[in-house]
Amino acid sequence: MTFFRKDEQLETLGDRILAETWAEFPTLARNSIALTWIVYDAPVPVNTGGALSPQAFWGHGVRGFSYRGDERIYPASVIKLFYLVAVYEWLDKRMSQTTRELERAIRDMIVDSSNDATSLVVDILTGTTSGPELPPGPFETWKMQRNIVNRYFQSLGWEELQTININQKTWGDGPYGRERMFVGELMDNRNMLTTNATARLLHSIVGGVAVSATQSQAMMGLLKRSLTELSKDDESQVTGFLGGGLPNNAQLWSKAGWTSKVRHDAAYIEIPGKQPYLLVVFIEGVASQDKAILPYISGKIAESSSDLVFK
Questions:
Q1: Where are the domains of the chain?
Q2: What's 78's DSSP letter?
Q3: Cis ω before 295 (30° cut-off from 0)
Q4: Which of 87, 222, 286, 310 is most buried, judging by how many CB atoms fall within 10 Å of its CB?
Q5: What pTM was computed for the model?
Q6: Could you report the per-residue pLDDT of 269-291, keeping only the tens digit for each?
Q7: Which residues, other chains included, contact 63 with Cβ-Cβ below 8 Å and sequence gap of 6+?
Q8: How far is the C-alpha of 202 from the C-alpha of 161, rounded, in Å?
Q9: 285: left (phi over 0), alpha (psi -120 to 50) or beta
């Protein structure tokens, strides 16, 4: 079972929005999009500053809709959400010590989506470094260390995390040396996420139960976006993403990811007078280069929030 329950109203709205999206964007194949949408009915259990205990939070059911929510897709920089939670877990458990450089890297990894910053975070999480190819023995040890983040998330016991892979750095031009060996000849060891797994992780952050209430609040601070970021800047995590379809009075916390082959976003959204919601959309293939699709879907979801009935 997923962490959310299916709901007839959301099924109707979700199916309608997807149908409208495919009609508006014919190049978007049915198997090139995945989506998970979570609605927070009153009493809203998220963005409370960590007021709920983990037991109370996870006992509070939420309803949602997903389309291909369990499909494994290359996540690009959305993977940084998982490294964010992991590094705060390491710091909370004193498995790593904070430094000015680590704090700078954590911020730049999320706020600016820096791949260089992510490289340092992964090095600190795993005790590995990039470099030339390694002989078989040392390489096996290196690979075991690099998979520590996977082992951490598997230890949570969440069904949504069973099929994902979190062990690669993010790159501009691509991996070299031992990193290229590790990703595999056919890139079969790439990072892989699902929209359901991403939604559950973001749900835990917004709920104040990712690592701890204090650490979750720190993560929320890094994920907060300003809608004034809407611009022609291709590096903005609002323009061309879910934030691009929101009204000016909305509040947005998000992490986007994009390459020449994918375009994704994971967001928690609050609009005055409407129920808060969480939305994760992954798009791959040719249509991923169309920067109008994510804002279009986001706008449709925001409009549909007016039709929601409290449950």
A1: 1-73+194-311, 74-193
A2: G
A3: no
A4: 87
A5: 0.97
A6: 999 999 999 999 999 999 999 99
A7: 4, 5, 6, 7, 10, 38, 39, 41, 311
A8: 13
A9: left
